Structure formats: C-alpha cells, structure tokens
Amino acid sequence: MAHQRIAVIPGDGIGPEVARIGVRLLESLGLPLQLEWFDFGADRYLKDGTILPTGFMETLRRDFAAVYFGAVGDPRVPGNEHAKGILLAMRFELDLYINLRPCVLFDDRLSPLKGKGRQELRFTVFRENTEGLYTSTGGNFKKGTPDEIAQEVEINTRKGVERIIEAAFDYAEKRGLKRVCMADKANVLLFGHGLWRRVFAEVSKRHPQIQAKAMYVDALAMDLIRQPEAYDVIVTNNLFGDILTDLGAALTGGLGIAASGNIHPGQVSLFEPVHGSAPDIAGKGKANPLAMALSGAMMLEHLGHADAAARLQRAVEEQIRSGSRTPDLVPMLGGPAATTEQVGEELLKCLSSTR
Ligand SMILES: NC(=O)c1ccc[n+]([C@@H]2O[C@H](COP(=O)([O-])OP(=O)(O)OC[C@H]3O[C@@H](n4cnc5c(N)ncnc54)[C@H](O)[C@@H]3O)[C@@H](O)[C@H]2O)c1
Which is the most buried residue in 143, 171, 199, 301, by most CB within 10 A? Predict the structure, then answer.
C-alpha cells in the first residue's frame, strides 16, 4: 500500500501540546502513513503574515489523504482572523460538508445524568458544515448609529441539505443503527427549515428500514437530557449542530474527550478535537490529550485502517478506566491529576499492549 500523506497542523495554545501526543500514537501503530508538520497558526501569522500559503488548498486536495488538526485561536490576534483563514477556510474551500461528532460515553463515571451510562449515551451528530448561518452573508446598515440594522442570512441549499441528510442515513444503515432524527426549527423558520423538512421526508423514503423523526431543536435539547437512549443519529444544520454537540460533549465527559471529523467522502478530510486552543490552560501541562487521540482514531477509520482505529479507541477507554487523568476529568474520575505528558506516556503503553 502506498503511503497516505497526512498534514499535521497543531495550531495554537494547547493544539501543539495534544498534537504531539496524537502523532506519537499514530506513529506507534506502524501504518503506511506519512505525517508532515505545518506551522500555520498565530506565531507564524504574527511573524510573517502567513495565514495559509497560496496554493495550499490545492496541494491538500491533490496530495494529501487527511489533515490532523489541533486547534486555532490566540488572544494576541484581535478578531482571530488567522483562525478563520485557516480552519473555516479549509472547511469551506475543501467542501468538508459533514461535521461528524460522536457523543459516546466511554465510562459510566463520566456521565452527569443520573441512571444514564454507556448503554444510554451513544448518539452521533451529523452537523452541516458549509452553509447555514456560518457563511458571513449579511451586513450592517447605519452601523454604529442608534438606527443600526444587522442582518445575518441563513443559507440552505437543496444540494447541501440533501447530501448531509443522505450521509446521516447512510451512516446509520452501514452501522446497523435504527433511528435518524433531524433537528430544525421549522415552526418559525418556515422557508429554510421547511426545505429541510421536505428533503428529510424524501430521503427517509429511500431508507425505509430506518425510523426517521423530525423534531424541533428545543424539544430535542430537552429530550437529550431526559432520554438520550432514544437517539442513534442526529442530523442538523450548522448552528444547531454546534450547540447540540457541546451539549453532547458535556454529557460524555467534556471537551477534553470530544472528537470530530470534517469530512467530504472520497476527498481529503480533516480530523480535530472539538475543543479550541484553551489559552487559559496552555503551557501548563493541563490539556487532556484524549480528544486528539480519538480524533486520530476517527481519521484512521476514515482512511481505511479500521483495526488500528479500534485499537486506539480501546486504548483510550482503558486509559480512562484505569490510567491517570488530566485535571478536567478529576471531578468525575477522582484525583490526583496528572499532566498531559504523563497521560500521553501511559496511553502509548496502553496502545502497545492493546491488540
Ligand atoms: N476548532 C478550533 O480550533 C476551535 C474551537 C473552539 C474555539 N476555538 C478558539 O479557541 C480559543 C479559546 O476558545 P474557548 O475558550 O471558547 O474554547 P476552548 O475549547 O478552547 O476552551 C473552553 C474551556 O474548556 C477547557 N478545555 C478545552 N480543551 C481542553 C482540553 N483538551 N483539556 C482540558 N480542558 C480543556 C478550557 O481550558 C476552557 O476552560 C478561542 O480563540 C476560540 O476562537 C477554536
């Protein structure tokens, strides 16, 4: 098998701290991967003005199988323009329309919900990643005056809506999952979310063996706390997906464990922890490397290395069960707290003994 080239972009803050560990884990698996580091982020931007060099997207599209991404965001860059130019640009220009976010509990002790454990908390969110309210379509009129008007336009294309809904059903079908739920606000957002409802009804007819249900997002947010076991796959737009997956992260151990993929099937795709650059803990050895490790497992699965992906996930589960933990998990698992490096070293050992 030819080597698959992976662009590693650690980014800012805790990004490099967790990426270092993620890459060591991937390297230890002995797979035909070629991991190549890129220094895009706030330091580089402040040094020479580079956000992403010209032609970089084309290089990614042509030569790379995936991007393994840490996090971007730095208080030294007002407005974080470099972060938008790096991460949002890759999501949009590489047309990474599926934001895949599993909300899976790895250990009952991480659940904040009484009586809900591993059996109950295992849903996956398909968030539309290239449209909705995230396209910066809109503007200000009479800005800065008492008569100011601000407009933010939600973009919903038939093509965009159909492909994310189809992807959710396809995922459920391939994994033998029984239920797909769509979250919208079609009772008030009549035009855009009316389109989502119509397309959802059409696509669900093509998958008669899957139970399809459309819900208002507010009702779903409530029900995810009440009975998370009622959900296997959730599909939704960009904004609602953003919010629901933070809720999902909180239900399954927090941002330190939440992993994600930004995917265009058959094309270069990007895998990253859900968390940001966490400037409050950067450089203090407190960052949890598990979200980065699990994002690596998602990337391996996407690249066709299912066995290695499962091994890496088992190692993380074992680490949570019996290894040490960073401070974010201490309230749930108990102390004492260990550093990012200590957890990383243990995880590497766990992985080498996991088959
Ligand atoms: N994908 C991304 O790159 C991404 C995502 C979200 C935020 N950001 C950026 O990151 C910066 C900080 O944003 P924020 O504070 O809102 O979100 P954040 O995710 O960086 O941090 C939120 C809280 O969670 C904690 N946390 C996050 N990751 C952790 C980990 N691995 N281990 C332990 N604790 C962890 C942080 O310490 C902080 O208290 C901002 O510049 C923001 O724009 C980037």
Answer: 199
pLDDT in tens, 185-216: 999 999 999 999 999 999 999 999 999 999 99
Choosing from 69, 110, 277 the residue with most ligand 1 atoms within 8 A of its CB, the one to mutate for a pocket test is: 277
Question: Considering only CA atoms, which residue is closest to atom 22 of ligand 1?
Answer: 278
Side chain identity at 163, as an amino acid letter? R
pLDDT tens digits, 33-56: 999 999 999 999 999 999 999 999
Residue 233, SS3?
A: strand
Instruction: Identify whether the C-beta of residue 234 lies closer than 8 Å to the C-beta of residue 124.
Output: yes
Do 167 and 98 meet the contact criterion of CB atoms below 8 Å apart?
A: yes
292: Cα separation from own chain's centroid = 10
CA-CA-CA-CA torsion for 62, 68, 74, 76, nearest 10 degrees? Answer: -50
Catalytic residue annotation: 134, 185, 218, 242, 246
Q: What is the DSSP string of 169-232?
A: HHHHHHTT--EEEEEE-TTT-TTHHHHHHHHHHHHHHT-TTSEEEEEEHHHHHHHHHH-GGG-S
- The sign of the torsion formed by the CA atoms of 128, 124, 274, 239 equals positive
Look at residue 1 and tell me whether its pLDDT is greater than 70: no
Task: Name the residue with tokens 């007002």.
Answer: 78
What is the spatial distance between Cα 326 and Cα 312, in angstroms, rounded to a whole number?
18
pLDDT digits (tens, 9 = 90+) for 97-120: 999 999 999 999 999 999 999 999
